[in-house]
Amino acid sequence: MKKRLSLAHNLLRNRWENAKSEVRRSGSIYYPDRNSMEREVRDLVELETNNWKKKYVWFGEEQITPEEIEHKKELLQVFREVFDWETKYELRISYYTEPNSYTHEHKCKDADELRKYLNYELDFDIEEVDDEDIDYDRFDYSSRIEGEDHNRSFDVIITKFRLKEEVQKEEVPEVSER
Question: How far apart are CA 36 and CA 13, in angstroms?
């Protein structure tokens, strides 16, 4: 039995398929609207990873409301039903050192591991830091590590963003956006 796509699914699919291409100065072709969709998914996955809280809140800005959270959860679910992508999670930890500080990045195996680090359920052993993870251009070799800054942050990287194969084959009735 063939699954019919909902209006939301069709709108996303049409947005993808009707994206206008542009040519960069280098001559390569890209799709700004598709890139925008990928950033939208990244932002939603970041929220989900961070227990539906914004990564950064500017002075005077509120966290998202429960109604907004529900809307964003539904939107992410629709994206997951229409698109495929690969997700990578990176943890960023800063350390106090004498006389300066440094930051390193750690690639996590999945969102669950990242959440555990962000919630301090997992400790990060300073001794396990790979030399490749340290930016030695600004590192004072006479430094000694004093402790963690307690300001863990993260990045979500979305790659290979594409329509699901079964969605590509689905016949789409004309949908007008009003």
Answer: 14
